[in-house]
Give the backbone structure.
Amino acid sequence: MRLRPTGSLASLILSCLTLVAQTSIPNAQEPSGTPKSVHQIFIEDQDDTQGPNGPRFTEEEYHQRVKIREANIRAMLSAGEIKTGDDFRDAAFIFQHGDQPEDFLFAHILAMEAMERGTTEARFIAAATLDCYLQFTKQPQVFGTQYITDRNVPLMVHPGGLPLPFGRTLEPYNEGLLHDFVRTDFCVPVLAQQKENIVAFNAGKWPRDTMHPPCH
């Protein structure tokens, strides 16, 4: 089972990162020379994966930058500088961009801590990071947050010109494990909508609005 495409970074960032495009990123500005906040590191991370002109780094460069951010977050955790639910949610996004199973497991724990501290918006990333961890340990996802590149569907070009594969699949997927009300509680589309999203992808469309419904 091939979980993460190799080759271009454009292909790589579509596996276990699809939720990023669904997340609004508030502006954060700090005086030059001051220590970076968790949220500023988060914004840099988002910019690396979805800049206006597409990915700006090779796959190796991108992972080097992710590891630096992860090290910074771990140091901030050790120093007690990550305190709020929003801090933990932002930290979860950073580790969710890792490349090892423990990165996704740690991201899931950070997201759960964010929820414990009152940031209910972390519910979706909590579900997504669990799905990523399951995928990277060769187990089926259970929420259905990850739309994996389907090698059996011909490559199509993104309308914006980026060379992104549109053919997707939810498999491997243990779709019967959870009830739809659990998916809804975690801001994940119900199973029928997920399957409609796959049809849209395979027709060359980007179902952005139905991949991550609003949290209530």
Residues 41 and 69 are 7 Å apart (CA to CA). The longest strand covers residues 148-149. The beta strands are 148-149, 168-169. The chain has a mean pLDDT of 81.
